[in-house]
Each structure stands twice: as C-alpha cells, then as structure tokens.
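During the reporting period the student researcher (J.K.) took over the structure-prediction task from the postdoctoral fellow and processed the backlog of single-chain submissions. One of the processed entries is reproduced below for the supervisory committee.
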Amino acid sequence: MKRRLLLSTALAWAALSACAESPARPQFPPSPASGYERIGSLMQVSVVDRSTGRELPIYRHRGEYWVAGRPGSRYAIRARNAAGERVMAVMSVDGVNIVTGETAGVLQNGYVFSGGERSDITGWRKSDSQIAAFEFTSIANSYASRTGRPDDVGVIGVAMFRERAAVPPPPPVVLPQRDGNASSSREMERRKEASSSVAEAAPAGPAAQARSADSASGAKAAPSLSGSLARPSPPAPSLGTAHGRRETSHVGHTTFERAQSTPDEVVRIRYDSRENLVAAGVIPVPPPPARWPRPEGPSAFPGSEMGYVPDPPARY
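J.K. obtained the following structure tokens:
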C-alpha cells in the first residue's frame, strides 16, 4: 500500500505520512509475565520482530522501557494513532532521525498518521520508494557509530505533535450608508478605523508563527533521547541498529502544521540483548524449582523411573 509523504508547511517543517493498515488489537493492560507490548497514549508504539511478526515484550525497569533484540534480526517500529485527528510522529533510532539521517531533534521531519491509522516503519528512509532495513547488530556496526555518532546507540524515540486547527477568518464589517458629503466623510473615517482594528485582531501570519515557534523551541530544551544501560562488564556485546538491506517502501507528499513547537508526547524505548537485560535485572528470571531436602536414612523417593512395577530378577 502506498504511503503519502508530507512536505513543508507554513512553519517549514516537512513530514511523512504512514500507510493505513488493519486496526491493531488492543493489548492493554499488559500481563505481568510478558510486560508491555505497546506504550503511549496519543499514539501506541511497539517494536515488531519482522521474522515472526510478533510484537516484542516491553519491560519497565527503574522508570525506563526496554525491549530485547536478537543480533541479525530485522525489526519495525509499529505506531498506531489512537486519536481522532492527524498526528505527526518524529522518529529517531540511536539518536538519528530515521527520515533525514540528521542527529535527531524534535522539530525535524516525521511521519503523519490520520485518526486510527497504523503503520510499521521498517527502516531508514532512502527515497520516496526505498528504505534501508532496521536490523539489530553490534554497536560498532550500527549506522550511528559508522557515521561518527555512537553516544546514543540503543534507544528508539517517538515525539508526537497534534495538528494546528484552522482559524476561521473574521466576519466582514458592514456599516450603514448615509447621504451627504459630510456623512460620507465620517463613514470613510469609521471604515478606516474598523479596518485597522480588524487587522490588529487578525491572527499572525505564517512568518510570525514561525518566529514564535522558533523562539519557543529556543526557550525550552527538547526532551533528551540519549542514554545507555549502566552495568559493569555486560555478559554479551550491546546492540545497535544497522543500515540494513534496501527494501521497497513508497511514500507521497502532503502538508502538516504543528499546533505547538514542543511535543505533545514523547515515547522512549531502550533496547539491548536479552542476556544483558537479564544480567541487569530488566527481565525477571523465575527462580529454579525447589528441591526436596534428602532426609537421613532411607529415601522414600530415591529417583526411580516413571512406569509400572517390573518383575524382580530370577532367583539363583
């Protein structure tokens, strides 16, 4: 199914839209055993193992969300718009914008979803018709490390924006007409005063809105999407995301104007190998089954095999 690519708006921020798919089955609340499968309120975000098609469990540990990846496996970021309006999602992997390849910032390009739309974002955007697949790999082989940006490897970020509502134009000012030159002169003065007051009350144009957005973004720092799993001597190499093989993925173009310059919601999901997450206590490991203590003297159950009572050996 062809997606639509969104181009610049009055605020000069470009965006991409995602294709519509079948509605996602609800997964809330999560089961205690498997953890979360989707997080987010404005949009539901999950990570999909493309080899199995299953959403990876998302574990919460010390205020962070985590998924366990397998080296060499391809994955997708699944996002579903839970709102009844268009929402723009700016996405980053390892601190890199997945559309433009820039070091990620919230006021960059992203995907736009209509109300209820869902899509699997499967890779780095290369053109209107191709992506390079997301693939779990070693940190040294990650796209971020290979482009000189290894500090934020191991994190997926989604910053969400609502769309600015259209402002209706002010109603026209209708003044009664009067006869006579003096009346006409007074009416002209009244009309000039009314026109100037309407111009002052009119909403700011795109350029003024852009200046306002720029000043707002400069006054408040964007949410940080960085971080790494703190632990001594991990049992296995940590993971990053590779610039995988090329795949076909079509997009088109449209426009989107953000309601504000700061995100309405930010989702952050960190990832690493299962071995490292178990060692760090992120993934709980069930205790081994309890063993009965062997009593002194003869044992009532010394470990005979299951079955029926065999015949005794023949007497000599």
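The committee noted the following: The two ends are 82 Å apart (CA to CA).
J.K. will present the remaining backlog at the next meeting.
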